[in-house]
Amino acid sequence: MQKRLTIFFLFVASYTFAQKKPLDHKVYDTWEAIGTKQLSNNGQLALYSVAQQEGDATLYITNLKSNSKLTIPRASLGQFSNDSKFAAFLIKPAYKALRQAKIKKTKPDAMPKDTLGIANLTTNAVTKVARVKSYKFPENGSGFLAYQLDKPDTAKKASATVPKKDSAFDFADDEPAGGAKKDEGTDLIVRNLLTGTEQTYKFVTEYTFSKDGKQLAFASVGSKKDKTAPQGVFLLNTEKGTLKTLIKGKGTFKGFTFDEESEHLAFLGEQSPEKQEIKDYNVYYNALSLDTAQTIVDFDMPGLPTKWSVSGDGRVSFSKDGKKLFFGIAPVKKAKDTTIVDFEVAKVDIWNYKDDYLQPMQLKNADRDGKRSFLSVIDVFSSDPKVIPLTDLKLPDANLVKEGDADFVLASTDFGRRIESQWSGSTTKDYYLVNTKTGERKKIIEKLNGNAMASPGGNYVIYFDENTSNWFTYNIASAKVVQLNTGMTVKFADEDNDVPDNARAYGVATWTEDDKAVLIYDKYDIWSFSPDGKSPAKNITNNFGRQNKITLRYHKTQQDNRFERGADTKFVKSNELVWLDGFNNATKENGFYRKNVGAVKNPDLVVMSKNKYSNLLKAKDADVYIFDKGNYVESPNVYVTTDFKTETKLTNTNPQQQNYNWGTAELVKWTTPKGFQSEGILYKPENFDPSKKYPMIVYFYEKLSDGLYSYQAPAPTPSRLNISFFVSNGYLVFAPDITYTTGHPGQSAVEFINSGVESLKKNTWVDGNKIGIQGQSWGGYQVAYLITQNDMYAAAWAGAPVVNMTSAYGGIRWESGMNRQFQYEKTQSRIGATLWEKPELYTENSPLFMFPKVNTPVVVMANDADGAVPWYQGIEMFTGLRRLGKPVWMLNYNGEAHNLVQRQNRKDIQIREQQFFDHYLKGAKAPAWMTSGVPATEKGKTWGFELTDDKP
C-alpha cells in the first residue's frame, strides 16, 4: 500500500510540474522588481517599494518590532523624518488614468498629478494632499514638513469658456484663462507634524530648510492677478512662526544654502528689468542677526575679473566651518543681436582643425557650456572682502578640499591637450593647488594620465599614473612626492585588461582618520599605505582574497542621504570594524565580510551564498540592516537583519513565477583551441530532460559569467536577449565569456564563442543543427563577424552592428558628439592602431568584406537615431547581403536610440525575435514580416505578426 501511495504522489507531482506553462509576452507588465528601500534612523521601521514594469508600484512601511505593515498603493519617493515618527511619500496617479489622459492628449497642467502622503508612524494614520509636486523634511530637525503644490487644474474652466482647437495647445507661452504662467510659483505649505497645523505661502518658486529645521528660506514671485501678494525672499522661523523679509520686490532668487550650523544663509538672485535678456546676478547673504539679506558679491566687487560676473547657473555653498562662501562666476554673455534678419543670414557650422573639440561635440554640449560657471570664493567675515577666482577658462575644474575648510582647492586642466581626446578618448591633466585667500596657483602634477584627489584631511593629494601603473602621494606641507608601491610586485591596475590602452587602477577604498593611512585595492585584497611612505605597506586582508580568488571591497553601509556632507562618510577610524563585499571569482557566489582595518588578518565571513546581494544599508542609530537578495531562480526580495544569523523576509515578489516553466543557471568551463581557459553561463528550462534535444541561442557581450546568480526578469529588453523568456519556451541559452587579443577582436570571438558552443555540442541534449546567436552593439558586431566564418549557426540576430570598420572609424557618436577613432585605437573595438598604420586589421575585422561567405539568415536592428553606432552600418549590412541574395531583414525603429527606449518598441522586438528564432530553430511557421514584408504604405496599419505557410 505504501509503495502504491508513493507512486501515486510521484505521478501527481510529475503531472503538476508538467502543467507549468511557458512565459508569453503578456506577463511583462505586472512582473515586479524591488524599488527604493531605507530604514528609519532608530532602526524600528523599514520603508520599501515594489514596482511593476508597466503599472502601479506599492510602498510598504513595516514596523520591525510589531510586524505591522502600512501599505500605500501607487506610492514612491518615500522618506522618514529624522525622528522616525513620520514618513512622507508621493502617490502617483493610477497608471490607467495616466494612459487615458495621454490618449485624450490632455494638456500638461490638466494631467493627473501626484498626491502627497504623510504617515503618522505612531497611529499609522495617513494624511493625503492632492496635486503636490515636491516635499522636504529638514535633515536633522524634526516636527516639520514643507511641501509645494502643483499648479491648479484650470484647464476644464478655461476650455469651457474659451473653446480651442488642438493646434492652439502647441504654444508653450499660451496662457489659458485663469491659468498661471510657467515661471509663476505655487503654494508652499509648512506643516507642523505634531499639531497638524499648516501655514500657506503663495507663489513660491524655491524653498530650503536649514539643517536643523529651525529656518525655512523661500522665494515668492507674486502674481499679476494678485497685486497684494508679497514678492521677494523670506525666512521663516519654524519654531516661533515668525516671517522675516530678506528681499522685497520682483526678481529671480534661487540656490538657497545654509551653513553647517544653520546660522547663515546664502543664495543667488537678480532684479534686472524683466525684458533684459542677460540678467545681472548677485550673491546674497544673511545671518540670523540681520533683518535683511545683504549683497555680498555684485558686478563691481573687487577681485572680479573684467567682463566677468556672478553666474546664475553656479552653485553656492559654505565651507564646513562657515568662514568661506563658494560660488560661480562666468564671462558676461553677449546679448542676442535683434537687428539680424534670420532668413538673410547663413546657418553654417565651421569645423576648424585647431578647435579643442569637434563641432558635433561642441553643439551637443553648447547648452551645458553656455551655463558653465567657474569656482570662486569670498571670505564671509573679512573686513576687506574681495572675490578670489579659483578657476578660469584655462583652469576650469576644481574640487573643494576638507569640505572647503582647507586654504586651497585642487584644480585641474587639460587645456592645450584636448584635441587628442578625438583618438585617445581621454586627455592628460595638470593639477594645481589654488590658494583660497590669494588665488595663487601652484602646479603639483604635470600631464597625468589618470586621476588625482585630495585626502579627506587635506594633507595629501593621491594619484595613480596609468602610464607606469604606480600610486603616488603629494605631501601638501612639504611638497614631497612619494611612490607608495615602490618595490612591490603586486599589480594595482586591471590584471585582466584586454583593450589596447593602459590598465585602469582598481581604486582607493577609503582613508583612515587624520590621513594616517590610505586603503587601496589590488584585484582581490586591500592594502594599507602610509601616505608619507615611512611605513611599509600592509595587506590588511592578509592575502585572503588572492588565495581564495575572492574580490574584497569596502562597503559603505550609510544610507544615501542627499543632505549628508559629514567627513565620517569619507574616512574610517584606525581600528574601525568595517563591512566588505565579497565576490568569489571561481564560484560566482556573493556575500559580506567584517574587517578591522587596523589589523593584518583574514576578514571574518558573515555570509556567502549563491545569491546576488544589493547594497547593504544600516540604520543610522541602530545595528539593523536592510538589503535585497535573489538569484536566477528566486526573484529578489527585501530582507532585514541584525547579524545575518537570522533574517526577516519583508516581500514576496512575483509569486506567479511558480506557475511558469522557469529555468536554472549553471557555470560551464572549457578550453579554447589555443589553450585559453574560459567559462560561461548555461541556462536550462526548468523541465529540462537530458534525453531530449534542445535548440540553443548563444548570447554574448564581453564577459557575463560574473552574473551567474543575477535574476533575469522576463521583460521587453532594450535589445538584449530576453533570456528567461526563451529558456521558459524550451531553449537552452549560452552566455560565453570572451577575452580579446589586440588587433584581432573578430577572431577572438571565434576562439571563445565557437569553442564554447562546440564544447556544449558534445552533450546529446544540444541540437547542434539548431543553434542561433544574438548580440547587441559590440555583441551585434560579433554576430556579423561570426556568420562570415562558417555555417555552424542556423539563425543570427545582430543589434546595432558595425560591419565596416574603415567607414565607422571616422564616424561620429552623435549621442556625445565624439569621434569614433578612440574606440578602435584605445578601447572596445581593440584594433590598437590607426586606419593608416594597420589598414589590414580594419579590413580583416570588417564583416562587410566577407559577406559572400554568409549563408546564415540574419536580422539586423539599426535605428535612425542611434547615437553610438552610425545606423548606416546596419544599412551597409542589409544592402550588402541583399545584393548577394542572402536572407536578411532589417528593423529600423523610428527615432529610437542605440538601445530601445520606448516600451512599445521593446515589446515589438520581443515578438519578432521569438518568431524569427522559432522558425529557424524550432520549425515554426514564419510571420508575414519575414515572408512578404510590410510595405511602407501599410506602415502603422499592420505589423506583419500573422503566421503564414510561406517560406522566407
Q: How is this structure best described in words?
A:
The chain is an alpha+beta fold. It is 14% helix and 32% strand. It is built from 16 helices and 58 strands. The strands form 13 sheets. It has an eight-stranded mixed sheet, with helices on both faces. The protein has a seven-stranded antiparallel sheet with strand order 9-10-11-12-13-14-15, with no helix packed on it. Strand 34 and strand 35 form a beta hairpin. The longest helix is centred in the C-terminal third of the chain and has 20 residues, at 903-922. The chain is globular, with a radius of gyration of 31 Å. The two termini are 58 Å apart. Mean pLDDT is 93; it is low at 1-16, 158-182 and 562-569.
Kindly, what is the distance between the CA atoms of the first and last residues, rounded to a whole number of angstroms?
Answer: 58 Å
* Strand runs, count: 58
Low-pLDDT stretches are 1-16, 158-182, 562-569
Strand order of the largest sheet: 47-48-50-49-51-52-55-56
| Strand percentage | 25-35%
Molecular shape:
globular
Radius of gyration, in Å, reads 31 Å
Structural class: alpha+beta
- What is the helix fraction of residues, given as a range? 10-25%
Number of helices: 16
- Mean pLDDT, as a whole number? 93
**Biggest sheet descriptor:** 8 strands, mixed
